[in-house]
């Protein structure tokens, strides 16, 4: 293979000068941008002035922007190689990036110029931005967190790469047909200007096969994994621009294809085309589709294949990069930090052991020291159904050598536990990586803990809970310092500046600059204007404008008219019983029944409400789908009830995704974060809504608690039971010692009367509250939920106080930037420093 010349002085002067003379230059002016757009439209896309539609214009603008990013990307990668410092690798099966054009323009501070430029070419920038397809390679919070973290890593100049899978199909598109969710495949790659295929960067990955073991003359044991099926991983690179810095990091996504050796030319030649095409399709299936489950482990073989394929390709790449430095293996953790986003990439621990022991012939202990200094593991859930466990027989068949390594890791671990806690057989079986069920299963979280240097939760309560419940034994074994908290954050570039440009501009006017987008704690400077009447009006006018924009969207897409002066109450997130959208819709029904029972005079005094829902249900999650059906059924009844009019509207927004979140977050007066206490690890949309001036109603769960601490409890509508009481309450339900809340009973009766259509449709939902044991404690929290909504209504009537609280809350949200979270990871877990690029 050709040698890459990375040291400038190794290149002859003449050659160097010729290259530099023609080096690609970034556009910096309107004219140079326009020139690039037209060039791309006319040559790259083979279109012209006469047939350039909005999609072609978007494509031209995106390609021009891509060229600009890649110039910075090249500089960054060169500088990072030269700096030769420790790098961070963020391994995530999900990156929920959303759209890129607007974000890239804003991060590069070129949007004004570009908008003028396209306007003179006959287009509105907003329309072009709207042409872009969301990159939806994720399910929900976990995937979006990864995307926010990439933005912060680049903005803070950390040398960091993301590694993921290049799914051909992202999360499905949701259509609502006759009130039911229907899933439509999301083929998003027909035009994706933001990726670069790296045809020279491929890795062969093996599955199945067997392990051949023999003893060498000197007595060492050699394990050779062979005879399996090989597929090839092909790299696609996505540039990640930082805000206000040339640093442009890399997100490397792997795509699967038949390995060159594997694709069976014999079959092809002999005319057995069908079988050879089948082989090809089988290879391509690995990266074909994102599993659409959030917070649930399904345990399918193809998912395990995806995990190993991605982890093995990424580690091969990381190790190859490390080897170029010719350092000793023991330096590996000084050059490399690998963060495991949940347990999905836990096989990386095993694969690195295999590389070090089987291929590089390090002794086990040396290898294990390297491994356990390299990895960090982030836990995102305590829900038992979400904790990954792989069946041993399935695993053994697919990855026989990895299973042996896991057995050895487990053996040495259990031996060390036994030495420290002799005769505690119970402890040994509790902490064993192998659960002795039928079939046996591998507990991936335990493997991740044992193989990592640090384990972190994603909000204070959650980090405390993992230490006192699911990982309690490991705190005893490893000590408390291995466990830490890094509260999640969101990027203010996308979630304030891009989503709400007017609010961002107003804040800039008050604070004097856009510096707050880099240092969000500067928002504190707003607090002194919280009682300024003129400022309050400007603030609330922007909220009104954003609500009008949403009202228009609702009208255009659903036909429902909503009054922008009404209180907009929004709950958008994956549909899950623990998030309790069912409680929200039961609350809406209860409100509807009270309104129906009122006189005209009483009704006239009520606060108008628009209850907005959005979110996808996992395709196999029947209860979640039933919840959607109930929401749509209630909306059909309520929205068409002439007694009710504008007092109450119910809207389900189809296909909730990142780009929809960008216009929903700025348009809320109130948003709902109402999970059963102790179940939502953090939540991140709570942060996005408050950052955009909305207040929240929520339980004492996840990051709600820290939001309350920061903004003050006068500014948040908290209700419901506490996490510490959940176990007892569930116990009481299980032993039939409860009566249903009377208001909830009324709601259930109304559903069973058929007010919202055939009641049989909702039987499962009602059953979950009764015989089902009300696992999510809807009945226990219902009374306080309703009374807290009454407080919301009262508070909303006092416009000045509401504006004051909105401003104060925003001014105290600085903590929730993902920049703060990333700096904490860098200092407490990774031990990496930024690399400042030369100007
Ligand atoms: C997911 O989106 C989250 C946790 C998971 O274990 C899986 Br799988 C998917 C979410 C949590 O539910 C949120 O509470 C949290 O804010 C988010 O991850 C990011 O940490």
From TrEMBL:
Its EC number is 2.4.1.1. Its cofactor is pyridoxal 5'-phosphate. SUPFAM superfamilies: UDP-Glycosyltransferase/glycogen phosphorylase. One of its GO terms (cellular component) is cytoplasm. GO terms for molecular function: glycogen phosphorylase activity; pyridoxal phosphate binding. GO terms for biological process: glycogen catabolic process. The modification N6-(pyridoxal phosphate)lysine is found at residue 688. InterPro entries: Glycg_phsphrylas, Glyco_trans_35, Pyridoxal_P_attach_site. It is an enzyme of class 2 (transferase). Keywords: Allosteric enzyme, Carbohydrate metabolism, Glycosyltransferase, Pyridoxal phosphate, Transferase. It catalyses: [(1->4)-alpha-D-glucosyl](n) + phosphate = [(1->4)-alpha-D-glucosyl](n-1) + alpha-D-glucose 1-phosphate. Belongs to the glycogen phosphorylase family. Allosteric enzyme that catalyzes the rate-limiting step in glycogen catabolism, the phosphorolytic cleavage of glycogen to produce glucose-1-phosphate, and plays a central role in maintaining cellular and organismal glucose homeostasis. This is Alpha-1,4 glucan phosphorylase.
């Amino acid at each position: 293979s050709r040698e890459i010349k990375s040291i400038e002085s190794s290149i002859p002067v003449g050659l160097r000068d010729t290259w530099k003379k023609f080096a690609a230059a970034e556009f910096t002016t309107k004219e140079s941008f326009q020139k690039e757009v037209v060039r791309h439209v006319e040559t790259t896309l083979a279109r012209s002035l006469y047939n350039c539609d909005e999609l072609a214009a978007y494509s031209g603008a995106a390609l021009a922007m891509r060229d600009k990013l890649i110039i910075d990307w090249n500089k960054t990668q060169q500088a990072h190689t030269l700096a030769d410092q420790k790098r961070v690798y963020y391994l995530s099966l999900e990156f929920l990036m959303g759209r890129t054009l607007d974000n890239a323009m804003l991060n590069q501070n070129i949007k004004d110029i570009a908008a003028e430029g396209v306007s003179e070419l006959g287009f509105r920038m907003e329309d072009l931005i709207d042409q872009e397809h969301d990159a939806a390679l994720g399910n929900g919070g976990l995937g979006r967190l990864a995307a926010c973290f990439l933005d912060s890593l680049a903005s803070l100049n950390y040398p960091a790469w993301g590694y993921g899978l290049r799914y051909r199909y992202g999360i499905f598109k949701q259509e609502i047909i006759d009130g039911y969710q229907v899933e439509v495949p999301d083929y998003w790659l027909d035009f994706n200007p933001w990726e670069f295929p790296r045809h020279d960067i491929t890795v062969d990955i093996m599955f199945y096969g067997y392990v051949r073991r023999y003893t060498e003359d000197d007595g060492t044991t050699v394990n050779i994994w062979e005879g399996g099926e090989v597929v090839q991983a092909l790299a696609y690179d996505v540039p990640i621009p930082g805000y206000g810095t040339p640093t442009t990091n890399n997100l490397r996504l792997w795509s699967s294809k038949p390995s060159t050796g594997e694709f069976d030319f014999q079959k092809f030649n002999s005319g057995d085309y069908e079988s050879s095409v089948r082989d090809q399709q089988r290879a391509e299936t690995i990266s074909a589709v994102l599993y659409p489950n959030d917070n649930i482990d399904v345990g399918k073989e193809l998912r395990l294949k995806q995990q190993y394929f991605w982890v093995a390709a990424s580690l091969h790449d990381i190790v190859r990069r490390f080897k170029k430095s010719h350092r000793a293996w023991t330096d590996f953790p000084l050059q490399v930090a690998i963060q495991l986003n949940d347990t999905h990439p836990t096989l990386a621990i095993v694969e690195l052991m295999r590389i070090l022991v089987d291929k590089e012939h390090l002794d086990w202990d040396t290898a294990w020291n390297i491994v356990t200094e390299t990895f960090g593991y982030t836990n995102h859930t305590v829900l038992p159904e979400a904790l990954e466990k792989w069946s041993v027989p399935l695993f053994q068949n697919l990855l026989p050598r990895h299973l042996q390594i896991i057995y050895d890791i487990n053996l040495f671990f259990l031996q060390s536990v036994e030495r420290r806690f002799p005769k505690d057989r119970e402890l040994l079986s509790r902490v064993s990586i192998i659960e002795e069920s039928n079939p046996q299963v591998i507990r991936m979280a335990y493997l991740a803990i044992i193989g990592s240097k640090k384990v972190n939760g994603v909000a204070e309560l959650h980090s405390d809970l993992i230490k006192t419940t699911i990982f309690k034994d490991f705190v005893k074994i490893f000590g408390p310092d291995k466990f830490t908290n890094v509260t999640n954050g969101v990027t203010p570039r996308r979630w304030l500046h891009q989503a709400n440009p007017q609010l961002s501009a107003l804040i800039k006017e008050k604070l004097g600059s856009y510096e707050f987008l880099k240092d969000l704690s500067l928002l504190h400077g707003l607090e002194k204007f919280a009682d300024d009447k003129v400022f309050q009006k400007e603030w609330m006018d922007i909220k009104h404008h954003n609500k009008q924009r949403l009202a228009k969207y609702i009208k255009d897409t659903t036909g429902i008219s909503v009054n922008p002066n009404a209180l907009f109450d929004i709950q958008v997130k994956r549909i899950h019983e623990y998030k309790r959208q069912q409680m929200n819709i039961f609350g809406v029904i209860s409100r509807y029944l009270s309104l129906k029972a009122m006189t005209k005079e009483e009704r006239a005094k009520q606060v108008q409400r628009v209850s907005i829902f959005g979110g996808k249900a996992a395709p196999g999650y029947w209860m979640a789908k039933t919840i959607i059906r109930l929401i749509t059924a209630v909306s059909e009844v309520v929205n068409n009830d002439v007694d009710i009019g504008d007092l109450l509207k119910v809207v389900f927004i189809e296909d909730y995704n990142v780009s929809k979140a960008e216009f929903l977050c700025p348009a809320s007066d109130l948003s709902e974060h109402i999970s059963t206490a102790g179940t939502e690890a953090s939540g991140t949309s709570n942060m996005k809504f408050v950052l955009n001036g909305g207040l929240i109603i929520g339980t004492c769960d996840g990051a709600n608690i820290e939001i309350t601490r920061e903004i003050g409890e006068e500014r948040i509508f908290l209700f419901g039971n506490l996490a510490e009481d959940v176990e007892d309450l569930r116990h009481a339900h299980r032993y039939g010692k409860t009566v249903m809340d009377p208001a909830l009973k009324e709601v259930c009766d109304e559903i069973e009367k058929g007010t919202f259509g055939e009641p049989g449709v909702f039987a499962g939902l009602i059953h979950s509250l009764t015989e089902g044991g009300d696992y999510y404690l809807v009945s226990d929290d219902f009374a306080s939920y309703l009374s807290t909504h009454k407080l919301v209504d009262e508070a909303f009537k006092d416009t000045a106080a509401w504006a004051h609280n909105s401003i104060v809350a925003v001014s105290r949200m600085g903590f929730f930037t993902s920049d703060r979270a990333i700096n904490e990871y860098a200092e407490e877990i990774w031990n990496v420093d930024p690399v400042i690029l030369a100007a």
